[in-house]
Amino acid sequence: MVRRFLSVFSMVALISACGSDSPGPTITLSGPVNDLGNGEGLEGVEVCILNTSTCTTTDADGVYSIDGVPAESNISLSVTMPEYLGGVIPVMTGSEAQTVPVVSMGSELLSELQIGILDVPAVADAGQIAFSISNGIFGDRINVPGIQVALEPAAGDGPFYTTSSGLPDTELTETSSNGGGVFVNLPAGTYTLRYLNLPEGCTPMLGWGPVEAPSFEIAPGRTTYVRIECAEGA
Predict the structure, then answer these.
(1) Which of these ranges, 2-16, 82-96, 101-115, 129-143, has the smallest mean pLDDT?
(2) What average pLDDT does range 71-82 have in this prediction?
């Protein structure tokens, strides 16, 4: 009887162990990818769950839909397009299909221009952050000024806040009406961006965790997009 009990117990343990390796629930993510320069949708962008073979491409309007994304998780999508700087999109997924906020990819030439303006040496295989504080009005190119940010752990070069024209300015000490900025030359890893003086009523858009301190992944040679939204009157 004892031997039989042990045999049954072993089978249950084996079934449980096998079950623990089975994939959990998944959802579909969709969203647009635009050209940073003209705001138009980019066709043919490869969108993948970062470091996996689960991929799709954007359609003629620059919109993607990717299946098999882990539900209730912090995940990263990669966006890749020839002649554009590759990107990383950090997303907190829920239990149902969801739409990811728009991301705008900049050309490799624009990245080189930024580094030239900043007058810092480019580090091979480093990543960067493009952060923005949106006013909730898509496409107006006017966002939330007067916000300061800090990176944890400290690494790379920045923050460099962007002017109203969208180019970084080493003299700025807070966001302009553009509402954004960059960190460059970051080693791969996980970081947290802290917003030091946010108004109340802001919401997370791209990034993991609370609005005042979203975390995200930096990948070599890619720009990670981190975004929150503080609507007018917040």
Answers:
(1) 2-16
(2) 97
Tokens 């995940």 appear where?
75
Give dist(CA 123, CA 113) in Å, integer.
Answer: 15
Terminal CA-CA length for the chain? 69
Q: Which helix (H) or strand (E) holds 76?
A: strand 74-80
For 12-18, the CB contacts below 8 A with 24+ separation are none
Cα–Cα distance between 133 and 195 in angstroms, integer?
10
- What is d(CA 14, CA 92) in angstroms, rounded to the nearest whole number? 32
Phi, psi dihedrals of residue 75, rounded to the nearest 5°: -130, 165
Whether pTM > 0.85 for this model: the answer is yes
Which secondary-structure segment (H or E) carries 16?
A: helix 2-20
Residue 119's region, left for phi above 0, alpha for psi from -120 to 50, else beta, is: left
Give the separation between CA 135 and CA 93, rounded to whole angstroms. 23
Strands (E), the chain: 26-35, 46-49, 55-57, 63-70, 74-80, 87-92, 98-99, 103-105, 127-134, 149-152, 157-161, 180-186, 189-195, 203-206, 215-218, 223-229
Question: Do 42 and 102 contact (CB within 8 A), yes or no?
Answer: no
- Write the pLDDT tens digit of every residue in 123-165: 989 999 999 999 988 778 789 999 999 999 999 999 999 999 8
Please tell me the chain's helix, strand, coil percentages from 3-state DSSP, rounded to the nearest 5.
15, 40, 45
